[in-house]
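Run: sequence + iron/sulfur cluster -> complex structure.
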Amino acid sequence: MLVAAQCGTTQYESVILAGGTAFRRAVRIESLSSIRVIMKKTNLIGLTVEELEAFVIGLGEPKYRAAQIFSWLNKFRVHSFEQMSNLPQAFRDHCAETASIVFPDIVTQQQSKLDATRKFLFKLEDGAHIESVSIPPREDAVDADKRQTLCISTQIGCPLDCQFCATATMGFIRNLTAGEIVGQVLAVQAASEKPVTNIVFMGMGEPMLNYDNVMKAVDVLTAHTGFAISPRRITISTAGYATMIRRMADEDRKVKLALSLHSLRDEVRRELMPITKKFSVNGLLDALEYYTKKTKKSVMLEYILFDGLNNTAADVALLIKAARRMDCRVNVIPFHSIAFTNPHGMSAELRGVKPAEIESFAAKLREAGVPVFVRNSAGVDIDAACGQLAVKNEKQKKKSM
Ligand code: SF4
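>> structure
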């Protein structure tokens, strides 16, 4: 909570943390005027039980109230303190005075005409926009009627400039808070009949650049007293932060990991994904090998096929060699046009390959004993397929990596 007060000739700002700890600073001298108080309430969405404990203790309540509030928010997904019927009325009133429950607003919900994909455009508290996509299950999935996979965003825009990605054209605006990440899931769940059973961090942004908030959101979403999704049903996809892959392994994170790979040749990958200038292909493979050995978990290698760029026999051979270094599955993905972003340079030159070539590329991997599956192009008619998320007209404020 931020309290600004003008007293005499000096204006003060007091920042009060969830636990009630406060610090105050003088911010500027102004002419004499009356005391003015502005309060910005703490949004409780995205707070862990421990953070909620600090909040309730700060309000003079016993610690166990935190678990009650956490369940109301994340399990029952209520929108007001008034609905928290097992809390004393006076405490509900006190909460409403000092805190808020703010979900991202669903501005539009687009439904694909080709499949069951739905794209959600959200407006955040500061007016910024992000997108999430509800992806239909594969038709042959055993539990297809019960599954809903949600692809969520972690940043507004992205600084990494991958040439095939529409989000990159927005530049980087800011990281999402844990509350804004969790809020996407809770808001889509409230707008869905089917439960959200799987979450992929493959929307706008590079999750590893917002690691703390992403992991906090994972902790909140997986807590058994809340949304209670299994960490095995959550996948975090990175463009290639080798150091963070190692960190995930060292921290023994239970979620799954995917790498947006797309080429095993440094010179090609550097052009396609400039992050390769920082982390070479070999450095990445070393990090993945470390991860798979340390965690005993498999990783997913994502590979978009581009005509004339990464689809030769030599490319297949390199991919097979890399896959044999670790426990992994390869996900071959068709390229989805980002022409709607008016791309230039390499982005404008990229072309996908025909479906038959995708199948033949995947078949060569299978013959070599590499587990592989081909991702379909769900949501392509509403620009909701892999690589197509971008908020049009969002203010661009590009920052360097
Ligand atoms: S693919 Fe991912 S990491 Fe690369 S620019 Fe797009 S959002 Fe960022």
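>> summary
The radius of gyration is 23 Å. Residues 98 and 315 are 58 Å apart (CA to CA).
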